[in-house]
Task: inverse folding
């Protein structure tokens, strides 16, 4: 394809996938915005238990993605798996609305959401990657804009769900999450002709009802297993390690079968995925420790406007993503055509530096807290800005990295492996967040501020050290990634 094509001018099918992802993420991030505080306020959990279960749920949400990628690639096809996953998630949100304070039904509902997300998540991005040639200069821009769709949906829901939930009860909020999925499904079915013939090999074949039956039986089994694991977190953590070992075992097997530039690129992809684990651990702090910090130690107003539901401060993350994404998409295309774009490893390292700054800002802000231990909201705004730009450079380009570096035959599966890094980070992130939990009975903002300030400083320093190590690996990773270009 011509290098003169604008990075902002995408195929028509791109916009259909953009809309699909936006509404699906509207539902998921609406749930995520209120889940940790729902555990505390409605189910009577302490902060530590809330963070731990939230981390386990997050791990399942992304841990099942590799399975969905495999089913999309090899069993049902990409498009059919998208629909099955979206319907399963929608049922989960409806059950959450019904559950109220029934803890057992809450766990069943979350299992539906986790399994539905696992089926869905890798497949829209896999479908998107099939619209482009690997050397298409629009690819980084396409995935950056695609990532913007995620954050538009997240921005709308992280504002709407906490507010509506606070006014009318969280059941209404969960039903609205289900409506988001219904819109996503309807839009995909209506515009499906735009991706006619764009699918995995399994999707291009006629539907095999025996395979569909096996998948549905397997889905029911995994939902039951996920419900059990949410009640038995040790089992969940062991199974996650088994799944991770299995997925990366397949990855290494394929890597050893490869040779030359293909193997070099897969090695580079693996190293970048390890770096992403660190980022996603930091990302998990937004709905957990940063969310609770905003509730307990940040002023509940912005620009003079009262914020009665401080969970809505999480909307700062998708807000900054939506603002910065088009700028980055343009810059990637502009400098890419001139051969001056930063390498993928350099972007990852820069993103991690920005994440370090994001956490180092908070202890500084704590020094300027008022006599009651309340910090100006602008410190939180700045933190979310740096964290969000860092996210664009790492998470936003992770899918593009997978599309570029792994063989086409493994795109869906390895995109699942990419999301598995988020699963591992869910558990680690839950543990890190629990370090900020105040002792039982401690509610004084002056005391909680000291705890948050200490832990955020430690996170910032550790991330700075990791960033420096990542900078040192840039030359090696560039050689691995560019080896194919030297052969051409």
Result:
């Amino acid at each position: 394809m011509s290098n003169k094509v604008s990075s902002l001018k995408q195929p028509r099918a791109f916009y259909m996938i953009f809309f699909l992802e936006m509404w699906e993420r509207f539902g998921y991030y609406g749930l995520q915005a209120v889940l940790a505080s729902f555990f505390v306020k409605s189910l009577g959990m302490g902060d530590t238990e809330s963070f731990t279960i939230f981390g386990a749920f997050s791990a399942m949400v992304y841990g099942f993605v590799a399975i969905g990628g495999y089913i999309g690639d090899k069993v049902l096809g990409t498009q059919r798996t998208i629909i099955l996953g979206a319907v399963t998630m929608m049922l989960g949100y409806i059950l959450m609305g019904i559950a109220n304070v029934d803890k057992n039904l809450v766990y069943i509902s979350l299992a539906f959401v986790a399994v539905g997300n696992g089926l869905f998540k890798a497949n829209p991005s896999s479908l998107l990657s099939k619209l482009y040639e690997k050397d298409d200069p629009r690819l980084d821009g396409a995935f950056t804009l695609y990532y913007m769709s995620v954050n538009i949906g997240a921005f709308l829901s992280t504002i709407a769900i906490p507010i509506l939930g606070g006014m009318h009860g969280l059941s209404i909020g969960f039903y609205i999450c289900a409506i988001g999925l219904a819109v996503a499904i309807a839009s995909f079915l209506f515009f499906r002709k735009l991706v006619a013939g764009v699918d995995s090999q399994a999707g291009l074949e006629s539907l095999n009802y025996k395979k569909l039956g096996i998948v549905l039986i397997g889905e029911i089994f995994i939902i039951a297993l996920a419900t059990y694991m949410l009640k038995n977190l040790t089992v969940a953590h062991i199974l996650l390690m088994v799944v991770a070992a299995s997925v990366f075992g397949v990855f290494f097997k394929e890597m050893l079968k490869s040779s030359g530039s293909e193997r070099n690129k897969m090695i580079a992809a693996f190293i970048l995925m390890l770096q992403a684990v660190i980022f996603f651990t930091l990302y998990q702090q937004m709905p957990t420790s940063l969310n609770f910090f905003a509730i307990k130690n940040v002023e509940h107003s912005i620009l003079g406007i009262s914020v009665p539901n401080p969970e809505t401060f999480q909307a700062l993350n998708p807000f900054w993503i939506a603002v910065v994404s088009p700028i980055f998409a343009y810059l990637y295309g502009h400098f890419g055509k001139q051969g001056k774009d930063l390498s993928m490893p350099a972007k990852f390292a820069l993103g991690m530096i920005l994440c370090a700054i994001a956490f180092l800002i908070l202890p500084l802000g704590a020094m300027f807290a008022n006599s009651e231990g309340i910090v100006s909201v602008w410190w939180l705004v700045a933190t979310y800005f740096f964290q969000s730009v860092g996210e664009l450079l790492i998470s936003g380009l992770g899918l593009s990295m997978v599309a570029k570096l792994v063989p086409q035959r493994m795109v869906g599966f390895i995109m699942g492996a990419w999301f598995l890094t988020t699963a591992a980070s869910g558990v680690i992130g839950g543990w890190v967040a629990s370090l900020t939990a105040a002792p039982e009975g401690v509610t004084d903002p002056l005391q909680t501020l000291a705890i948050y300030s200490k832990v955020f400083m430690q996170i910032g320093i550790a991330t700075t050290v990791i960033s420096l190590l990542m900078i040192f690996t840039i030359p090696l990773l560039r050689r691995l990634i560019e080896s194919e270009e030297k052969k051409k």
User: Anything to note?
Assistant: Residues 1-5 have pLDDT under 50 and may be disordered. Residues 12-487 form a domain with the Growth Hormone; Chain: A; fold (CATH 1.20.1250.20). The CA atoms of residues 14 and 128 lie 7 Å apart. Strands lie at 301-302, 305-306.
